[in-house]
Amino acid sequence: MDKFSVFSARLVEKGEYFTSGHRACQGCAEALAVRLVMKALGRNTIVAMATGCMEIVSSPLPTTAWEVPWIHVAFENASAVISGCESGMKAMMRKGKLPPKKINFVAMGGDGATADIGMGQLSGALERGHDMIYVCYDNEAYMNTGIQRSSSTPWGASTTTSPAGKVSKGQYTQKKDMPKIAIAHNIPYVATACPSFPFDLMDKVEKAAAIEGPAYLHILSVCPTGWRIPSEEAIKYGRLAVNTCVFPLYEYEHGEYSLTYRPHPILPVREYIEGQGRFRHLGSEDIDSIQERTRMEYEKLVKLSEED
Amino acid sequence: MAKERKGIEVSLAIAEAVGQADCDLISAYPITPQTHIVEHLSEMVADAHLDAEFVPVESEHSAMSVCCGAAAVGARTFTSTSSQGLALMAEIFFIASAMRLPVVMALANRSLSAPLSIWNDHSDTMMVRDGGWIHVFVENGQEAYDHVFWAFRVAEDPAVRLPVALNIDGFIMTHMIEPVDFEDDELIKRYIPEFRMEKPLHPDNPVSMGCFAMPEIYSEAQMTRERALVDSYATCVKAWEEWAAVTGRQYHPVETYRADDAEYCIVTMGSLGETAMAAVDELREQGEKVGVIKIRLWRPFPFDDLYRAAAGKHTLIVLDRAISFGGPGGPVALELRSALCNSPQAPVVVNYVAGLASRDVTVEDFKAIILGGKAKSAEGDVAGFTFYGLRG
Ligand SMILES: Cc1ncc(C[n+]2csc(CCOP(=O)(O)OP(=O)(O)O)c2C)c(N)n1
Ligand code: SF4
Ligand SMILES: [Mg+2]
User: Fold this and answer.
1) Smallest Cα distance from A207 to chain B, Å
2) Which of A91, A284, B160, B166 sits CB 3.0–4.6 Å from B232 for a disulfide?
């Protein structure tokens, strides 16, 4: 799909596979991300989902928001569960117990499920080379349990377990670089995306689905509730994250990096930080240091993509 | 494979049986004493002796998760573990039964850390006693081989759809070379029909599995789970009868030895049953009216079979191979006491804990336990439990 075409929106799949009526908060960009991912994947998909906001909002018995086969087993094991679905079907198709069919095997989890508790299982699944896509919806904290910090929470963010206080600036560690960890597994495809850039996101999902072997997608998913922003501003903050280079959009395909979107001009991180309640305790120097780190990280990425 | 008798290590016989059962997916993580089972399975897959996916995961938690995913798409699945591995997969162990995923697991029973011990007892399996699985215990190589088929047959039965744990004593059985009568593939194929899940995960007919429950529905979900496990009893028995019809080898939920006229019975589970029988033979020669009660089906608990076996007995002497720390006794004795307490003329239950971490329980030990239990019963010293053969 041509990303810059004004007709792009018309080409998008009309069907919904993550349907309305789920119970996500108003303005939840994680739910939007799931919806877009599902549109790009289409009907022939099996989803294994980790415990977390998206699982809870979409599956209260006896209802479901899922129009594709969907399974939830636990918090840390979506990647292992989808490994089982993929390998089980592979064996059955090979043995003639099931008619052959091309199916997208997709595991989904939040940043906590991915970067923390499910990291070993994800690593195992990527290393084994299953034909699967893993999608991490990164809202930068454990939102489902009440906005606790994860290793994907950025430095300085106040959460319920990294609260800002007299002697605390909130989260005191730097955000774990999950896409790089995925890349270190030498898998064919890794990409970052954000639902504020919906066509870019869907292109990447389609690419991930077309590629044989494991693919990893890391999607920044703004959570108005946890970030303490007005619910109508999730899209705006997603754009700001990308346009300030706090969350660059890039791909890693068969060993090569490429930036899929270069903000021009690059906006100061201040614009991204200032309106968010989770950062409101930070002073000018703190924001400067975030700016400096953001610049350095982005430059590294630009270099990597130019090398290739 | 054709019908034939072989001398074979029990672990390999189990693996061969999984192959004969035409399993689609095996996922496991190595732990002593389960290793020979999964090593042999991966060999069978590598040699195209078995057409299956062998998924070599990075932990037991993943092994059970992979099996859940595979069972959910309708694949026949097998895993095997022991001790710490079971402890690590415990979270998913409980979920597999709740989601009615018919995984079959060979549980090579081993003691739990700490102190670290690779040897055999039942502390691992007792940890997941309440996990909603069907649990069966076997006593020798033939029983282990036979019960692989039984486990698939029961687990996948549309009336059951529950995972089955096949408990085999680690080392004492897994590493023994025993004579095993192998059955031919055609017989096995007839005994376990192809697994057909009614509603597997498949894009042609989307279903949601593993939804969460509000309090309004959680209890009902647990109730259906309980009912499924209790009702599986009928299929367990039917599957044994069908097996007996084609092989001549008959199994029962509770089995007895020289127990009909016995006043005192030793109660065992697993491989120690054979030693207990030898001890009973010797005591019988000395004129003691003793017998053996062996519990084969641990879950669903065979209440009626137990009542029949225990009827008219003066005292049951229960040998437990695990401890419920801080509780009133070993888990088997606890269950027997609670099962029997309201029955008329309930026998006295005396409890010994022995054979932890493969500490030998010899024929002489069994004799001492049985006679010791008889004496305790006479003295009314029957509360709690006794550690048998402690040093120091
Ligand atoms: C083993 C285990 N530990 C803890 C939990 C509690 N828990 C459920 S969801 C969750 C956080 C989910 O965070 P994340 O993966 O980032 O998803 P989000 O809700 O933010 O979308 C936690 C801690 C659990 N369900 N299982
Ligand atoms: S807490 Fe955040 S991620 Fe969770 S449903 Fe609400 S807005 Fe979405
Ligand atoms: Mg999160």
Assistant:
1) 20
2) B160
pTM, entire model: 0.97
Q: Which residues in chain A touch residue B66, judged by CB atoms under 8 angstroms apart? A: 80-81, 83-84, 87
Q: Are A216 and A186 in contact (CB under 8 A)?
A: no
The 3-class secondary structure across A102-169, one letter per residue, is: CCEEEEEEEHHHHHHHCHHHHHHHHHHCCCCEEEEEECCCECCCCCECCCCCCCCCCECCECEECCEE
Strands (E), chain A: 45-49, 70-72, 104-110, 133-138, 164-165, 168-169, 189-193, 215-220, 250-253, 256-259
Question: Per the structure block, which two tokens stand in for B187?
Answer: 């017989």
Q: Which of B184, B212, B247 is the last residue of a domain?
A: B247
CB atoms B70 and A84 under 8 Å: yes
Ligand 2 atom nearest residue A110's Cα: 3
What's the pLDDT score for residue A4? Answer: 56
B236 and B340 assigned to the same domain: no
Same domain, B236 and B305: no
Residues B348, B310 share a domain: yes
Report which ligand 1 atom has the smallest distance to the Cα of A53: 19
Q: What is the mean pLDDT of chain B?
A: 97
Least CA distance to A53: which residue of chain B?
B212
Q: A74 vs B99: CB contact, 8 Å cut-off? A: no
CB contact under 8 A, B213 and A83: no
Question: Residue B265: which CATH number?
Answer: 3.40.50.920
CA dist list (Å): B32 to B38, B80, B88, B124, B312: 11, 11, 15, 13, 42
| A287: its two tokens | 């924001």
**Spatial separation of the C-alpha atoms in residues B229 and B164, rounded to whole Å:** 11
CATH number of the domain enclosing B120: 3.40.50.970
Q: Are residues B175 and B316 in the same domain?
A: no
Tens digits of residue pLDDT in B201-215: 999 999 999 999 999
Q: Is the predicted pLDDT of residue B85 greater than 50, yes or no? A: yes
Token pair of B30 as six digits: 């190595």
User: Considering chain A, what is the average pLDDT of its residues?
Assistant: 96
Token reading at A91: 């064996």
> What residues flank ligand 1, with Cβ below 6 Å?
A 30, 51-54, 75, 109-113, 137, 139, 142-145, 150
Q: How many domains does chain B have?
A: 2
The number of the ligand 2 atom at minimal distance from the alpha carbon of A143 is 1
The residue from B219, B247, B275 where one domain ends is: B247
Instruction: Inspect the interface and report whether the beta carbons of A101 and B25 lie closer than 8 Å.
Output: no
Residue B26 included in any domain: yes
Query: Is A82 near chain B, with CB under 8 Å?
Result: yes
| CB-closest option in A63, A120, A127 to B59 | A120
Is position B392 within any domain? no
Q: Which CATH number fits domain A9-307: 3.30.2010.30, 3.30.420.10, 3.80.10.10, 3.40.50.970?
A: 3.40.50.970
- Centre of ligand 2 to C-alpha A284, Å, is 29
pLDDT tens per residue, range B247-289: 999 999 999 999 999 999 999 999 999 999 999 999 999 999 9
Please check the confidence at residue A165 and state whether its pLDDT lies above 90.
Answer: yes
The residue contributing the CA closest to ligand 2 atom 4 is A53
Listed residue (B377, B355, B378, B381) closest to B366, CA to CA? B355
> Which structural domain range is residue B260 located in?
254-387
Give the CA distances from residue B150 to residues B18, B80, B132, B236, B260, in Å, rounded to whole numbers and listed in that order.
Answer: 11, 16, 18, 8, 28
Are residues B268 and B236 both part of a single domain?
A: no
Does residue B42 sit within a domain?
Answer: yes
Task: Kindly state whether residues B199 and B230 are assigned to the same domain.
Answer: yes
Q: Whose CA is nearest to atom 1 of ligand 1?
A: A75
Same domain, B44 and B158: yes
B152, part of any domain = yes
